[in-house]
Amino acid sequence: HAKTRERNSVQFFNKQLSELENQRQKLLGDLRQDLAANRLNMVYQPQYRLADQTLVGVEALIRWEHAEHGFISPDVFIPLAEDNSIANEISRFVVHQVYQDLQQYRLLGNPIERVSINISAVEFNSRMMLDALLMEIESLPNLKQWLQIEITETATLNNLEKSAANIKALKAEGLRFSVDDFGTGYTSLAMLKDLPIDEVKIDRSFIKAMVHETKAKAIVEAIVGMTHGFGISIVAEGIENKEQLDLLKVMGCSEGQGYFLAKPLNVKQLAATVRSGL
Ligand code: C2E
Ligand code: MG
Ligand code: MG
Ligand code: MG
């Protein structure tokens, strides 16, 4: 019967949903535990000036190796954390680990003069969480002068006025502010005009497309030209081959990162790379 079939499929669907919810809760519990036990790690992807390939900074990226499931991407667990307000705990871990890593290898300030960390949308949009993070950073001597905060463009979408106030709070502390995955939102132009931005990072989807799509290429060119005019630094993300690198240089894009230049490295590998002058 249709009615019975319908009821059965609804029951089936509900069962699947609650299993999914159980899995989420289990994963979240594991994340909380591993965070508390300092079992997550940071890796660092070098960023280069494209003209002469000198190192200009690093982006710190979080890594979680789950005891049963192995490596879980931050693209999976960061959104989970955001929904459950442990975003702040993640960032607290990140700033402490970055500080400890770079101090242990004596990299902070020299030769690494810029360290970017990613923070979550919920954190950026909550003044309470943002202030908590600032206090955490403040507690680590000499960190903030080298630190840059990355926030995805879509995180600032909702309210440009509020975003401007939050960026000013970061900048008042001496931190630099970078807009990640730039070009993917709907407010790109308004942001450049109205927000006190230090850096934008061109989303890697444009870098991928620009070598065979004239419109993507035109977008990258426009972003490079505009940021130049506004005195904003620019980093191309996701450079995977020489063709992309060469095109970016021709366009006058000043900085970049990507697997073709260097993969994210653990701090020991980073120290070796930096000391060998690469
Ligand atoms: P994102 O900030 O845009 O980081 C860049 C991502 O691109 C990283 O992935 C990096 O490993 C990857 N990548 C670098 N070069 C290349 C390349 O040439 N090709 C390709 N295909 N990918 C490249 P990852 O580490 O998996 O991070 C994914 C996202 O998770 C990040 O995107 C960021 O939004 C978030 N995330 C990572 N670490 C943290 C963290 O510590 N805190 C927070 N809140 N979010 C983080
Ligand atoms: Mg980033
Ligand atoms: Mg990005
Ligand atoms: Mg991203």
From TrEMBL:
<protein>
    <submittedName>
        <fullName>Response regulator/GGDEF domain/EAL domain protein</fullName>
    </submittedName>
</protein>
<keyword id="KW-0812">Transmembrane</keyword>
<feature type="domain" description="EAL">
    <location>
        <begin position="24"/>
        <end position="278"/>
    </location>
</feature>
<keyword id="KW-1133">Transmembrane helix</keyword>
<dbReference type="GO" id="GO:0071111">
    <property type="term" value="F:cyclic-guanylate-specific phosphodiesterase activity"/>
</dbReference>
<keyword id="KW-0472">Membrane</keyword>
<keyword id="KW-0175">Coiled coil</keyword>
<feature type="coiled-coil region">
    <location>
        <begin position="3"/>
        <end position="37"/>
    </location>
</feature>
